[in-house]
User: Which sequence fits this backbone?
């Protein structure tokens, strides 16, 4: 394929791919055509398969820039982590609010273990994995990752990560109030009975949420019909 034979939407994806990866036009078209013109998947293929399609040798990130970025946000009293105040500044630079789901997406991709903070290893190794060495690259990458969550397997991984991230590390269960907040962040628009489920918990449950309950709700939300016509009462016991 050549650029002049592509549709306008495909040309735009080629330009975005080149901007993100610094690859050649030929490499961009090869990756995009192999990934059914899905930009997010093409970028992942490019970064995860260094030998494919004559990948350019130049690394698309600079570790020193990543370390400088970490130093900008690290806790002045504990250099091995970014504390809540540093996270707040980081999000301000990204121009996203603390309530935005993109915050959770970033935590997922760097495998953060504690809310409102990042360890040095999480932040630096996470950005290396994402191939990001500037705030602007992180912002662009996060929006690509949002598209990735349209894939059921990726969303399931993201959803299951959230339970461990959201709960108190010293407890096995997730506080109900916290669970409801995260369910609304994750399942709004995906589960039509979400409001009813949350109201039921608030009125009748009032207990911490187990990991099994957390995981089963996702499965339930994906199979149940709006009118509950396929709900098996006996099977729910």
Assistant:
């Amino acid at each position: 394929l050549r650029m002049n034979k592509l549709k306008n939407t495909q040309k735009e994806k080629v330009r975005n791919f080149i901007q993100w990866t610094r690859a050649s036009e030929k490499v961009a078209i090869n990756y995009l055509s192999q990934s059914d013109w899905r930009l997010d998947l093409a970028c992942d293929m490019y970064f995860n398969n260094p030998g494919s399609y004559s990948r350019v040798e130049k690394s698309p990130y600079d570790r020193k820039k990543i370390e400088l970025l970490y130093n900008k946000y690290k806790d002045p009293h504990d250099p091995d982590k970014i504390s809540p105040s540093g996270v707040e500044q980081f999000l301000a630079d990204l121009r996203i609010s603390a309530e935005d789901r993109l915050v959770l997406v970033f935590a997922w991709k760097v495998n953060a273990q504690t809310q409102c903070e990042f360890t040095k290893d999480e932040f630096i190794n996470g950005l290396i994995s994402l191939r990001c060495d500037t705030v602007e690259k992180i912002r662009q990458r996060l929006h690509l990752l949002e598209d990735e969550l349209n894939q059921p397997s990726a969303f399931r991984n993201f959803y299951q990560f959230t339970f461990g991230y959201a709960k108190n590390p010293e407890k096995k269960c997730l506080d109900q109030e916290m669970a409801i907040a995260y369910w609304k962040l994750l399942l709004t628009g995906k589960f039509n009975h979400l409001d009813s489920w949350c109201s039921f918990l608030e009125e009748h449950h009032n207990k911490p949420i187990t990991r099994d309950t957390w995981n089963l709700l996702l499965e339930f939300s994906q199979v149940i019909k709006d009118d509950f016509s396929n709900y098996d009462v006996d099977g729910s016991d």
In short: Residues 54-58 have pLDDT under 50 and may be disordered.
